[in-house]
Amino acid sequence: CGVPFLIEAAKSPADALRSLNHRLRVAANAVRDVNKRAVLLILIDAADNAVAASRLLSGDCFVQPLWSLWDDLPTNCYLLMTSRSHRQTELISPPNTARYELLGFTEEASAEHLRKLFPGATERSCSAFHSRTAYNPRVQSYLLDNARRCDPLPGWFQVMRRVQLTPFAIFQDLISSAMQGASEKTRQHLCDLACLIRPVPV
What we know:
By secondary structure, the chain is mainly alpha-helical. It has helices spanning 13-34, 47-56, 63-67, 107-117, 123-132, 137-147, 152-161, 167-179, 184-195; strands at 40-44, 77-81.
C-alpha cells in the first residue's frame, strides 16, 4: 500500500492471524474498560461473495481461516458473517455456529413500514404491499424512498403501481435514472466498468 514503514506486511497467513488475534484482544479489552457490558463485533457482510471470488480467481480466501480464531476470541468478542441461505455451507463454519435466517418482514412489519409514509393505508393496501414486495425490506425501502420525492397522492400511486418490482428491476431502474442526462464520456466509462471481471482486482 506504499506505507511499509507504518504497516508491516505479515510474512505468512498464520502470522496475519496471530497479529489479528492480538489486535482483537487489545481492542476487546479497550471497549471493556469503557463499559463492562460492551462487545466487539467483527462483521463480514456477504462472506459467500468472498468465497466465490476466491474460487473464481483461484486464490486464497480469508473467510475460512477466520473461523480458526473462534475458540480463542475474548469473551466479549463476536464474529458475525452474513451469507445467502443456499451458500452458507460454503463458509465452512464450525458445527456449533449459531445460525439465524432472515425471513423478511412480517405482515405487521410491512404495514408499519408503509404507514410511516402513508398513515392512512388500509389493511387491504398493507396486505397487498406486503405480498407483492415478497416481504423484502430492500424492495419496500426503494419504493418508499422514491415516493418521498413526490406529493402524497402521486407518491401513493407510484408505490402501488411499481410494487411488484424485483431487485433486478430495481437495479435496472437505478442505472437508468443515473444515466439520464449523462454525457457520452460518462456512458462510455460505465460500459468499461461493466466489462471488467468481478470482483475487480486492485
